[in-house]
Task: structure prediction
Amino acid sequence: MTVTAVVEDSRPVGRSLTANRLPKWAPAAVAVGSIALGCGIGAAAGLASHLQWGLLSAALFLLISYGLSARVEGRRQAKDRFATSVVWVAFILAVVPLVALTVYTVQQGMDVVNGNFLSHSMKGVLQSGPGGGIYHALIGTLEQVGLATAIAAPIGLLTAVYLVEYGRGKLAKAVTFFVDVMTGIPSIVAGLFILSVWNLALGFGYSGFSGSLALAILMMPVVVRSTEEMLKLVPNELREASYALGVPKWKTILRIVLPTAIGGITTGVMLAVARITGETAPVMMLVFGADYINNNPFDGPQQSLPMYIWTQYSQVNNDFGYARAWGAALVLIAFVMGLNLVARGIARWRSPKSGH
Amino acid sequence: MAKRIDVSGLSAFYGTTKAIEDISMSIEPRSVTAFIGPSGCGKSTFLRTLNRMHEVIPNARVEGKVLLDDENLYAANVDPVAVRRSIGMVFQRPNPFPTMSIYDNVIAGLRLAGVKKKSVLDDVVERSLKGANLWNEVHTRLNKPGAGLSGGQQQRLCIARAIAVEPEVLLMDEPCSALDPISTLAIEDLIGELKSQFTIVIVTHNMQQAARVSDRTAFFNLAGVGQPGKLIELDDTQRIFSNPSVQATEDYISGRFG
Result:
């Protein structure tokens, strides 16, 4: 009894459940206000960089929303507003470079990319002049990435199945360890490894396939990791339900576990593909680069999009080269984005359904 | 079709921990046997040793004998997959396969065993769903996902899936613990119907349920935390609930502990 009495007494008398609140549009208004103020101060102080204007606005936004809220709503609400504002500012700081990069690439590349650019190689095109295209690089990238995926995806998938469904003891630990180590391999090291083993020790020449081997090394750990996580998400109850029906383990994995996780697995593989599509270093070392169309990835130098961009930018090194580099960059970004969209589509299409 | 089970001297382990010790009992065909007892006494573990599901857990192992009619399930050359085909199982939480429709869920066991003929599968689906009292509710939407059904319907779907492979024995691990009273009643009625064809073993925490559905009841108990569970007694349900021969059983069912 005494305890409850004390608790009741300690409650301040006459505290209301309502308090002053800022209107719903307040954060937006503060944002607009601080951007205007930030730009104003920036212009007045003669700050050259728009980046400085933006940072000034962000700082003003944080200060004003805290101060305003503290005056009207009280300290606790002000802290809440401050934390929310920090999250917003961080979000915008993260998005700005991404959007800027995309917009700038589209601006620079738009005029270059056309039917001619996509369907012609650089063979016989003067480097100091206009014209030419990326057809040979596009073919090269598609073939190299396709071959790398054909090697790395099945191996990675089966490794993940081993680790999740069968792996026990030392071997599984060792495999996990090496997969982790492989995730951190710099692409140039993978390239050097293939160069020394495949090209120098075994004596094969430059080829798209040689590049694919290095790309496969880079892709494999990513596939293993993402597939492993997806397989772990499949509830054990489903496996047990299948065993209890008298279904053998391998069939349970093939028909129950993998289909349940296939959406996530596909997304993981697609993201790994997107990652290796932009690799330049191993391609430079192993595929060598070419100006002409080489449809055979197993024989002779090929070209690839990232390497084409590098060549046009740093080797050709004039306005026509820059323009071609931007065009290729735009195609590369579009290609990767397309892969991402396909992955999302597959993930949504194949994910387990609960609807009616 | 239904077969009897004779267990003798059975112990089960998780790694080095002994979960149940020296259990011997007979389970009659075409009857319902209920397992009751406090949490952690090894009822579910024992149930899972009856169709060799116990060993699915890493480092788990079993000692002793389980005879299905006259075949020892733990003999050296017995294939656990074949064992599970003749001894089906229904789990605590409904677990329909999320990627499959209602139809595909029911025939999952058969299709994965290689049965392809559409007419056979159609028959099995209708017979199993009718057997599980679910046909009337779902026969217009067999191609909809199984995960879209209510909890009670999902559990009956799982029962339909289990009886579709025509097992001799049906093991049920607290099949009603995640369901509301109405769904529970539906499943209890179903158990009453199924026992004409199958040998049924059911683990339950609900003593009224054991009294309602079972012919014989086994009481399990453990001496203390960390001690292995043991079978205290197995007798006709009526006798267990009115005049048990062991004091611990009476204490448990009258609510004095557990």
In short: Strands of chain B lie at 5-14, 17-27, 32-36, 60-68, 71-72, 87-90, 169-173, 199-203, 216-222, 229-236.
